[in-house]
Amino acid sequence: MTSLLAHPTTALFLGAVLVAILKGQARSVAALVAPLLALWLVWQVPEGIVWQTHFLGVEITPFAVDRLSRLFATIFSIMVFSGALFSLNQTSRLELPAAFVYAGSAIGVTFARDLVTVFLFWELMAIGSTLVIWSAGTRRSYAASMRYLMVHLTGGVLLLIGVTAFIAETGQATFGAMTPHSVGTWFILAAFLVNAGAPPLSAWLPDAYPEASWSGTVFLSAFTTKTAVYALLRGFPGAEILVFVGLFMVFYGILYALLENDMRRILSYSIVNQVGFMVTGIGIGTEMALNGAAAHAFAHIMYKALLLMSAGSVFYVTGKRKCTDLGGIFRTMPLTAICGIVGALAISAFPLTSGFISKSMIAQAAADRHMTVAWLLLAAASAGVFLHAGIKFPWFVFFQKDSGLRPPEPPLNMRIAMILLSVVCVGLGVFYEPLYHILPYATDYRPYTADHVVTQLQLLLFAGLAFFVMLGWLRRTLTISLDFDWFYRRLGPALVRIAEAVIEAGRAAVRTAVFDTMRAVGAWLVARHRPDALLARTWSTSGMALGVMLILLAYLVGFYVL
Amino acid sequence: MDRHWLTRPGTIALLWVVFVLVLAGTVVAEAFIHRHAHFEVTSWFGFNAVFGFASCAVMIVGAKVIGFVLKRPDTYYSEDGDD
């Protein structure tokens, strides 16, 4: 049990308590030290099983370390630190503690080697992240957080069904590589995919994330989907269905982002797009592909956080979130614009950025397995990423037209957080060996060949040409695009209203029928029992005698006949 | 107020010239490097340039088509009391 103190999650949960009760400088110190302590612990614990016990007759391993779990725990810890730094001036007292519980649970998942513990942390993540959305404190965010929670509780139920069935099928709860061929494993896969933002439920992500506060979205972007990527990496490497799911997500993200007007929703769709690359890699399943998926998750967390910090800063100082309201603000926010552009270049996988050295491993894996169609689709999607996130985001937010806004740069802590992540995004792109060194499998992949650099530049720059040539087609409009959430925001309530009307009509009909019958019965009774009605009036003695005589007569007849 | 130097027509024209030169440069550079294409089709000269442009054009048109069906005013859900 003492080993629990060495668990990085413990550091973050304690940090959550401290951040909740402390104020001022002490709170800031706690907010920055807890993630660093967690990061330190991630690298102190030796590989192997740290803590194992029995629960309800199954062996559970809540704390075990290997390369894959350490990689994800590392990036999650770095992410909490960056997010905490960025949100130091957040006035909500709830958001940061909730984010720490959320991130701590995500780290808990990465160190869990049994499905019961995974389930517990999975649910805690859902609660923590819901509170992060909720703490934005608006009506919209409350409604969005409830829809978000419903989807994730559904995912939790799927996971619980899957885990229960898995234990019933196999008699053990170890979380290792599975193949989806039984009820239990299918449900587990479905639950993981819900959190990954896979179809059909993917709408939860672009629905909920942009409703969080300027800093909340930064936290949200990192943990839920990437924990799902981790879980798929450990649970379902090489499951072929993931190639199709991943490629669908990639293009879904691009097309919806192209139609979108809200800057943070553009970036939310692009999370689905990026996770699609990782899911495809997991489906390809070779060591190169799995390394690529893991490396891409690592790089993605950093540049997506940077992009959302940049968008969050704009939202913080202008209070505006729609591309149609923004534009031209690079004049007074050059730093935010430059950091946003660095993130945009990284997500587009430009050479010398982190995206280049991670995403190319997935494409390489597709090529190695001679998956021509998948490779071409991934290449088209890479161009599409530059289109929908790489240029579209900085162009419409910072350049485009002069909106007349002259907002100042955000506060110092937010600027430092953005600069830090910009350095990481470029640093990883240039000095990639340390990242390659901690990937799940040893690799000697070399991203910087003349061939690769030139072809990638061609692909991206001509995508950029397409953007500016077809700019008229991309004009922003005050619109949203219908998604699967229409079914539970519109169709579901409409059906409920119809059902209510039908039931109400039925109730009215039954009520009328019952009342009419009772009224008729009452009238009938009254007609016979009211004073001087047939049954209530005083009968004459002779009539009584006649009656008694008839009864006796009937008795006599009955006695002989029966 | 002066126009920001980045927004002057001269600068924008210059940026276009530089952009087109860089585009041409990436294609020309292909002639001087050792290619090891993964598939037959990708070994064609300038494949990535054409493919990058064409696939983006298709995606932009595709998004437009989807938009005709799925776009709604952004107040669409407001009457549910979410705004």
Can you put this structure into words, describing what you see?
The complex is a heterodimer of chains A (562) and B (83). With 562 residues, chain A is mainly alpha-helical. Chain A has two domains: 483 residues, no CATH class; 73 residues, no CATH class. In chain A, 72% of the residues lie in helices and 3% in strands. A two-stranded antiparallel ribbon of chain A has the order 1-2. In chain A, a hairpin with a 2-residue loop joins strand 1 and strand 2. Chain A starts with 7 loop residues before the first helix and ends with a helix. The model of chain A has no long low-confidence stretch (mean pLDDT 93). With 83 residues, chain B is mainly alpha-helical. Chain B has two domains: 33 residues; 39 residues. Chain B is built from two helices and one strand, in the order ααβ. Chain B is flat, with a radius of gyration of 21 Å.
Average predicted local confidence, pLDDT of chain A: 93
**Kindly state the mean pLDDT of chain B as a whole number?**
84
> Helix count of chain A?
20
Shape label of chain A: elongated
Estimate what percentage of residues of chain A fall within beta strands.
under 5%
Structural class of chain B: mainly alpha
Classify the oligomer: heterodimer
Write the layout of secondary structure elements.
The complex is a heterodimer of chains A (562) and B (83).
Chain A lengths: L7 H14 L2 H21 L3 E8 L2 E8 L1 H20 L8 H17 L3 H20 L4 H32 L12 H14 L7 H5 L7 H20 L5 H19 L3 H22 L2 H32 L15 H14 L6 H15 L3 H27 L13 H19 L2 H5 L12 H20 L9 E3 L3 H45 L11 H21 L1
Antiparallel strand pairs in A: 1-2
Chain B lengths: L8 H21 L17 H24 E3 L10
